[in-house]
Write a structure and sequence with these properties.
Layout: H1 2-9, E1 30-33, E2 53-58, E3 71-73, E4 77-83, E5 94-100, E6 107-115, E7 118-126
Antiparallel strand pairs: 1-2, 2-5, 3-6, 4-5, 6-7
Length: 148
Amino acid sequence: MAIGAAVLAGPATGLAQQPPPDPRPGSGVTVQLNDDTAYQLGLVNKYVHGDSNVALAQCPGDGLKAPKSTTFSSPVLTVGKYDYGPLIGVPANVSAEVELKAGTAPGTYPLTVNCNGKSYTATFSVPPRQVSAVPSGGARAGDGSMAS
């Protein structure tokens, strides 16, 4: 859960790109996938293959906590464990672990939060997967194949 732990640690001041506020005046609601960290930028609204991914939202509720009725949905994500409380360094008071559904093609998809009976949507991108296997006959780091 590298991203989840990094989200709790918070980004360095001035480095994080925060999501734009909801365009509806006075809503105060934001929704995004992942958050930039002090050591890695470019995570906001991008699915990261092979790592933990977290849906985040700011939903006005009871004090600092989002209402327990707050939910996330996306046609390509499975939503897991929710946490209804503020996060340090992230403009969010509800988060949930998410996983990409099998067979999802690279592209842009919606992430919706249902907050106080209203839906707010952001879009996120799913990049192509990186090649995970070394081609047959290819050099491998540390195996001595490049030694002379």
